[in-house]
Specification:
The structure is a single chain. With 163 residues, this protein is mainly beta. The protein has one domain (7-162). It has no helices and 15 strands. The chain has a six-stranded antiparallel beta sheet with strand order 1-11-15-14-12-13, with no helix packed on it. Strands 2-5-4-6-10 form a five-stranded mixed barrel. Strand 7 (68-69) and strand 8 form a beta hairpin. It starts with 6 loop residues before the first strand and ends with a strand. 25% of the residues are buried.
Length: 163
């Protein structure tokens, strides 16, 4: 995924146990919006890997941090410039059925697609013509945007169809 994604929670379930939010650590760099597989949990920190064809436990990196500009932190308010080095502990959002989210980068062609699914072996999203039997997000028909400085970026508005 060449372009850096912006991930937004639009309307998500909440419960008193906080089970939707977890922490994890990967052996590769991460960005907000990256989709990962939850592995083993030790001391409340999940091991994160790139999704495979058989992944059943997904999470999305949703971590507040300061953007880095060159070697300096805090010079930019662009969320696409937030990156986490390998081994950084990040916050995760675990989507549930009917959760509404928005992202800005999806691989492939939108034409004819009805769903967005995780990229196998990657940390991004791709267009699909069906939900399949793994995590999938149904594409809503509405078009929205997110503003970053004076730039307006199209968002893909999605609802979790399968978890």
């Amino acid at each position: 995924m060449a372009d850096k994604n912006i991930f937004l929670k639009r309307g998500v379930a909440a419960d008193e146990t906080g089970s939707l939010n977890k922490s994890g650590q990967a052996s590769f760099p991460l960005r907000n919006g990256d989709i990962v597989e939850l592995g083993a949990c030790k001391n409340g920190i999940y091991t994160l890997t790139k999704p495979t064809a058989t992944t059943k436990r997904y999470a999305i990196v949703y971590n507040a941090d300061t953007a880095t500009e060159g070697d300096y932190k805090g010079l930019s308010d662009d969320p696409r410039k937030v990156e986490f080095k390998e081994g950084t502990i990040v916050n995760l959002f675990c989507p549930r059925k009917e959760d509404d989210i928005a992202i800005t980068v999806v691989e492939g062609t939108e034409s004819g697609a009805t769903h967005v699914v995780p990229v196998v072996g990657g940390v991004g999203y791709k267009f699909a013509s069906a939900a399949g039997d793994t995590l999938a997000f149904k594409i809503k028909e509405e078009n929205k945007f997110v503003s970053v400085g004076n730039e307006r970026i199209k968002t893909y508005e999605l609802v979790c169809a399968a978890e």
